[in-house]
Amino acid sequence: MPQDAGRPSVGLSWRDVLFAGLLVAVAAAVLGASQLLIGPNTALSGYLTILFLLSVVRAASWRTRILSVAWSLSVALLGFVIGGAGLWVTLVALVVVCLLQAFVGLGEAALLTRSPVNLLAFASLNQSGAEVWHVLLGSVIGAGVILTFSAIAKSRSDKSRTSMTMRQRVSYAVATSAGALLIVVVARLTDFPYVGWVLLSFCIVVSVGADQRVTRGYLRIVGSVVGALIAVLLSMLPSPIPTVAAVVCVVLCVAYVNAGNYALFVLFLTPAVLLTTSSEHSSLMLGILRLEAVLFATAVAIVCSLAVDAVVARSVRR
């Protein structure tokens, strides 16, 4: 949902880095214990929920945080239920989630832009032998980690919130729904293996105001290119350097997303993702696939936004 971009700082305080490092360490320990004691599906559910709720760690109110948790659980359950129901059911559910995401009045919970991504991720869990209690328990565990750190995090100021007009909500809802549908259908037709990458990039680009989407897409592309090059170079180094570098990148991702610095968040996100992705593809090929995902997602976000804004503006003039 469109937000005020602001002018973030490049630097990080030692408290920012320490907080991010502690969050990553605790999350890794909790998810690791969940995998050993319960199973991989529960751990994956917790991981997806943590990613989903990461942006509300510093939300201004506990109401926002609790409602965000409720929304994340709803998306997880819906995704799991539709898993295996076929493409058409998935597309309908995708549209429903995109529309609801636009009209849920949760203040900073508007930052929960990865709802469509989590919907598809939990749908795929249905195909891996997971049971509904795995999804629920894992989601509760992930939400517990986020709420625990929310209790010690410094909240954002209420001044950072911006209100949206009904026209903006409609434009965002339609653009997000249309783009998500197009991405899923094209990925299915082309057998693109990382539809989640495309969908996440699309959701992030379209989440800001229309006047900022080209800039956001540009930052996404530049950050992905530089990040992919860094990841390829790091992957050529002897073990355990790539693993250590991946951990550092994850910590910096968390620190910068909490600090509101999108450009550096993207820069460290790409190597963090590529260095931790298990695939039969080489590091170079993964980098190329990542760049393809970002380019396509950015193009879809900008085209859908321009088309929807033009249609809405024409209807208003009538």
From TrEMBL:
Cell compartments where the protein resides: Membrane
Location of the Integral membrane bound transporter domain: 183-304
Transmembrane as UniProt keyword: yes
Entry keyword set: Membrane, Transmembrane, Transmembrane helix
Residues annotated as transmembrane: 17-38, 44-61, 73-104, 132-149, 170-188, 194-210, 217-237, 243-276, 288-308
GO cellular component, one term: membrane
Bilayer disposition of the protein: Multi-pass membrane protein
Protein name: Integral membrane bound transporter domain-containing protein
